[in-house]
Amino acid sequence: MIDTGDNHSDDQEVVRDGAEKIKGVFSSQTISKVGTGTTQRRTIQKTYWSCEEMADGCIEIQPLNFNYVPSGPKRSIDRDSFLASYNPEPEFYMTTVYPAIKQVDDAIVRGEQHRERGAAYSAEFEFKQAMAVDEENVRANFGLGLTYLDRGDEVRANDIFERIVDLEAAFEEEHKHLFNDFGINMRKNKMLDQALQYYLRAEELVTDDEHLLHNIARCYYEKGDIKGCRDYLEKSLQLNPNLEESAQFWTYLKRQGLIAEDEEPNIGSDAILKDKAPSIRLDGAPKDEESGVSPKDEAPSINLDTAAKDEEADMNLDVGSSPESLSTTDEKDKKPSGSIVIDLD
Questions:
Q1: Which one of 86, 238, 264, 345 has the minimum C-beta count within 10 Å?
Q2: Residue ranges in the chain whose pLDDT is less than 70
Q3: Residue 184: enclosing H or E segment and its boundaries?
Q4: Is the pTM of this model over 0.90?
Q5: What fold, for 91-206?
């Protein structure tokens, strides 16, 4: 599982002595005593981990669950400690881990395909199949939650929401499109409190993301909290004065009489917000069809969701720190679930 670099290609990163970066399944062992006196015996606990070397040279490790797929909190250890305590398990990966991961990935792909075709119940089945193997899989949880929202099943969607909001991996960069879709769909289903809690949770983990702040402003607007909307809209524009959706939103609030006509956001510039009133539909829906908003004839119809165009409004969810720094102490102290205990006596 540690490539020597003898046949590495030009686009692979190498470290120190020419060895490729560490990546694969490794195991660690701990020996403990069980019982007392004449009944005392020794046991060995073997735990499997998914491991990958990071750019700083530290190794990020994640335990395998009972079904032998990477799941749960990640943490980082230094390279020397890793090499001293962890052993590569290439055969175990090929015979056990890889088939389990493929089973999950295949089920998710089928679920996403069913959802795109509008086959909600088939999609639900596939996502549940994936979660039966890895209940913390981010794509499966998002997929199942979006499926419930598509069906208007708020009770089950809320159950998934409560699970996702505790999964810090859900707010990482690789899941930004799913993150956006889920938040917007919760709001459209009038799950406003959950949508706001969801975005505020992201704000705890995300640094300086004007799109996220814009979405929080939109939630406050839908809840009728104009002050909260105004505050977060101003924060969004402070980070990026050129964010067109936020500039349009501010203009819309002024034209609706919700903020003073001569009031501008406190962003240290008066060069923006001029001529920011093109006719753009709310959420891509036909004019006047967006519930909760009834634009006046003279007011602009504005796209208040920065994530409506995925390519132009990606959520920047790179928290700028290692996954370990996002894990609580309790999570780090939890023993991996995919351990094997062997009686030595």
A1: 345
A2: 1-19, 268-345
A3: helix 176-188
A4: no
A5: 1.25.40
